[in-house]
Amino acid sequence: MSVVVGGKILAELPKAAEKLAIKIATIKKAIKEADDLKDVAKRIASFTSKTLDDKLKEIADAWKKFYPEVFAERKFFEDLMAIYRYKAIEGWVRTSDIAPNFKAVDFYKDFFELDNVISTKKAVSMKTTKVKDVKQWLVSKDIRKNIRFLEEGKGEGFISNGKKFKITEEAKIDVYMPKENITDDLLKT
Asked: What is the distance in angstroms between the CA of the first residue and the CA of the last residue of the chain?
């Protein structure tokens, strides 16, 4: 079907409609992600003022309520770790400051940046899972891809969001899971 619009022929109206539908879906997804971020920011602000018991309960509730909705929950745990473990005051930098979808690495430390190259001594990738079998988790497609990027970072470096990222000393994956999923066998693995 061809349609003339403003003196131009629109040869494939169905394809144009499909592209429009994809753009609308992308916009709806971006709005949901923005709402998720607002919710995460509110939760973090509330979280930091709670007692230890209340914090542990909220983390347990987060696993039950959100997992595996990666976007919202990954942001929540990453924000918590920026406050409690990978602190800016101790020199840790977040890759989410570069881009929300930076490959493989969430935090890095002891670095220098020249042009579009970041060279860092330490890099950490945070992963969340409910899987109790480490071997099953390690062979998953997403984790294998993450490990490959870290290996590339330890070698020639990998490219993400216009930056070449090189890791000179330590690349590690910190795995976070519900406390009740951590067993003696898991700790021995």
From this structure: 61
The DSSP result for 21-64, as a single string, is HHHHHHHHHHHHHHHHHHHHHHHHHHHTTS-HHHHHHHHHHHHH
Give the model's pLDDT for residue 153: 94
Q: How far apart are CA 169 and CA 75, in angstroms?
A: 26
| Regions in the chain scoring below 50 on pLDDT | 1-3, 70-72
| pLDDT of the residue at 61 | 77
Instruction: Report which of 108, 132, 117 is spatially closest to residue 187, judged by C-alpha positions.
Output: 132
- The answer to whether 124 and 81 have CB atoms below 8 angstroms apart is no
Which pTM value belongs to this model?
0.66
Q: What is the pLDDT of residue 71?
A: 41
Torsion of CA 78, 83, 85, 89, to 10 degrees: 120
Q: Are strands 163-176 and 158-160 parallel, antiparallel or unpaired?
A: antiparallel
Cis, bond preceding 68 (omega within 30 deg of 0): yes
